[in-house]
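Hi Q.,

Before the meeting this afternoon, I wanted you to have the fe (ii) ion prediction in hand. No need to reply - just skim if you have a minute. The sequence and ligand are here:
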Amino acid sequence: MSSSVLSTTAPFRAAARQKYFPLAIRAYSGVAASRLHPSHSKQVTPVAYAYVSKRSISSTQQNRTEEYFPSPETPGVKEVQAWAHPVYTVEQMRNVAVAHRDARNWSDKVALGTMRVFRWGMDFVTGYKHPRPEAKHPERFNLTPKQWMNRFIFLESVAGVPGMVGGMLRHLHSLRRMKRDNGWIETLLEEAFNERMHLLTFLKMAEPGWLMRLMVLGAQGVFFNGFFLSYLISPRICHRFVGYLEEEAVITYSRVIKDMENGQLPEWDNLEAPDIAVRYWKMPEGNRKMKDLILYIRADEAKHREVNHTLGNLDQKGDPNPYMTEYKDPTKDHPTEGIENLRATGWERDEIFFKPQEQK
Ligand SMILES: [Fe+2]
Ligand SMILES: [Fe+2]
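Predicted structure with the ligand bound:
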């Protein structure tokens, strides 16, 4: 077999060499040029290009990499457009902070407790330990770029599920009950799309091995069905659960940013964000490094945190989606699609839909 063909046994051999056996990932060359190998139906990256890779994640022979998302080659097609991402400023992203919304009633407690069990499971399978403040050797908790990338890929593959399930169920509800949805579907589907863009971006920098793919498959099967049933029973608890989950995502990405600023991830100091990310977030020139990318992604997670806590505060059947609403009083602060009015713990219902006599 030619050395440039993706071997079916390569992932097994690569995984066996890893410290984290079940989480082996393989390198993506980062080179757009690819060709269709005559003896293989998949597009593979030529050997000559693989060695000029600037990607630092590598756990497999460089010449056994696969082009995940080759540039569109349909005649006449320049770009495939999808949801446009709102523009974030550097200052807005820097202002994103870790936050927690206290559980105020039994349903909040159910959501928080479930999220903590969920987080424990995620940490366990991705080999992640968060350092306690009193830890004597916090450096032992440091993750390598490869371990971080494993965690990102696994988490983002799961994070894209809730928005799609919520949007799908509300869509079906609208169809069968012949009622309007009042704009919730769009925001939920866009959230799922945004999470998938996080995943696709990371997949441009690291390619998961067979066991990681298996874990993603299993996690999706369990989580999709669990969330589907839960959303049928209580959409409010589900939005609160996602709000709490997004609080954890902000914590995780904040830790990555801190580690990078402390010089603990020197491999990423000069790593460029992939083109897919530059185009999606409209990253300005001079702000297209790995750290900038993580700042964008953290800001997205903070937005999901706000959106889901806010949706969890609303009447699930009657209230319009405050993120798709044109307000009578534009001078008053309202929820927006961007992060200019970001509320870390969400908007209260009374703040959004105030009564006419309160307009003073
Ligand atoms: Fe995400
Ligand atoms: Fe998120």
